[in-house]
């Protein structure tokens, strides 16, 4: 298992796929670990991508700084990993907390990237997300990792995903509980205590950017993704039907297919962002369709309205 | 070497040899914290924060009491020299780089408590087959859960305003305490055929 060194800390990573291929670098969400990308690794390697996954500082098998983990350190660790994948085109994608780190990376080192895919992501903390984050942190403090998982699961995945595992939730949660420590998760959450909105810096992201947002994302709803779409010049917003915040766990085949198609389009110079809004297919390989003209994609009911 | 306790007996209980060694270590560590909190605790509380000292003292005492009663003990000749090494490691050592000696000792106590509460996860070593109704299994889960709560006082103190000027010294002291405690814990586990598995995911 290879490790990168960032100061005195070690970052566990994995590289798969042909060394001369374009690379996808995938960044975990808050309570995740690198193995959760296994389906993506397999699907993307099969489509001739090199795939890099890793545990953020404070997660899984990477070192867990005892008291402070800054988001700048996460960006620096990501930079080390991207240097490791070589000189070819690099596509960067991350979910939720990992999406924010990917955005920060694109602001700081956009020239190194061929494309960016923020998923279930945000650039600012409006009151709902701020208070939800605080409540989740309190849940972690009072009830431990297991209780945090109990709060996140019903928020972030569908009834269809939960129903078959309802009587074995402990085993679903076990790996995440084993590899993540309370103090390290708390440090990751407390890296938001001095958070400054990224919104003013988003226009500096000049690379092709596909923003993925679950139709029913409760934690980071459409409006947060709309900020990215409006502010990032060469972006498009793709809505994943019937998906929640953690659609990368629930719909890996569809999401991996969207990632591969985005990168293939960018490399073939077919990609046109134009701040457009799309609806993803239900299954991998289906067609993306444009969001119906004249309807407001920020509403849950078919209201006709102006689109920025 | 396994990543978990075992092999379990037919009732899903952790072997007595492993119970004895792990409980001894935890009693030594939490007992040391309890003693140091007791020494820092005045007879009459004069500041609000001292209520937390009181809580920490009694919670540490509860952990020691619980493990004494929940463990299936067996003779272990190695415990004599092991305990001596553990007790030496818990000695106060004022944190470097903090001129106020009393504050440096308080930082040392907080870093030791942080390392023990955050760095030792005994429940994570229980296999899924462990009997949830066994007192030792329940005790380890309780120790880990309560440690997560006790830890909050250390986090608040170590991240607090009063220590901002000494942030580097605090971080260095904390990382040192974590490394010490992690090393002792790893050695204990290796001695009972459990791998701390720092380089591989448990499954």
Automatic annotation (TrEMBL), chain A:
It comes from the Bacteria. This is Lysophospholipase. Coiled coil: none annotated. The lineage of its organism: Bacteria, Pseudomonadati, Pseudomonadota, Alphaproteobacteria, Hyphomicrobiales. InterPro entries: AB_hydrolase_1, AB_hydrolase_fold, AB_hydrolase_sf, Hydrolase_4. PANTHER family: MONOACYLGLYCEROL LIPASE. It comes from Bradyrhizobium nanningense. Residues 25-251 form the Serine aminopeptidase S33 domain.
UniProtKB/TrEMBL annotation, chain B:
It comes from the Bacteria. This is Uncharacterized protein.
